[in-house]
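Box 3.1. Reading complex inputs
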Amino acid sequence: MELYVERGFEQTTVAEIAERAGLTARTFFRYFADKREVLFAGSASLQEALVAALEGAPDDASPMEAVAAALDAAAAFLGEGRELSRQRQAVIGANAELRERELIKMATLSAALAAGLRRRGVTDPDASLAAEAGVVIFRVAFERWVTDSRARELSEIMRESLGQLRALTAASK
Amino acid sequence: MELYVERGFEQTTVAEIAERAGLTARTFFRYFADKREVLFAGSASLQEALVAALEGAPDDASPMEAVAAALDAAAAFLGEGRELSRQRQAVIGANAELRERELIKMATLSAALAAGLRRRGVTDPDASLAAEAGVVIFRVAFERWVTDSRARELSEIMRESLGQLRALTAASK
DNA sequence: CCCGTGATGTCACGCAACGACATCATGTTA
DNA sequence: TAACATGATGTCGTTGCGTGACATCACGGG
């Protein structure tokens, strides 16, 4: 992160990262599949947290209520490190390759949520749609939280965004 | 395409592609930004066709009706080359880097459609949502068309998928 | 004290991607 | 016709990503 923020993603070589970390480039590649993956190291555990929250929702919760539980977990997971999230997002936004990687992480997350919903008994078109909607809300809320100057909580913005989507879909005849 | 189908994307070198085309690797990179871009060469013109159709829709058409016009254009654009689309999709599906590239192309398409809708006077949350919904329908219908053994028309599957999404959103209270 | 085992380093390699420069076929203009 | 500009291609050299093969070294257990 230090190097990516200082001089940008492309201008940073793996050798430099390894040196800063007191390692060899070869060792770097034993921990991260490629230069991009460093920025997404936490995404696996984030995904696990969301899926766990979704599956831990009450049995009688609707699909979107279960998704809302997952979003709460996301807020808890990310809520503390706003400054880190800001830097990270700035780096990713400045580079096309990183945006690609982020998109596929989001797609993976969506698939995992859909699978979790199916395990809860939600059938297929609904499971996928609810999962995709959840990811859309996550992205929108996260973007606002990172951008906004006001110190609102991520969880609050998540809930607000969910409400907005609800209103929008309800209003579409 | 020949080489990617024969031996897969990763096992094909740019030098081989260039040789097959009677060129140098250096020249290849003058036409395509990278090895992946070859498979997405047509995506710019596809996007232009969709946006043109969206903007050419009647003034009194609703946002989703305009999106439907764009989907018709997509069907017209791709409808003839089913076998090519099949091969292409098989290659892309077999490789993570190519899936990433495809995701960012879809995101770009969604942004272009949203911009087109805004030019039609649709305001922001609706424009983005309608555009994203359009891309979802495109993906789902295209996937079915490529996978299905039956010889149904792409345009027909597009319209059917749009109807299903409409029904789903209408049913969600 | 030896012996796995896992983490790291070293070396060598293939290949993607790009900059700089040369070449060659064009069509244009005097 | 000769001179010249232009655009497409080839040639050469370089950087950096990513990987396989092998060596080394620290460690804890027997």
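In summary: The mean pLDDT of chain A is 92.
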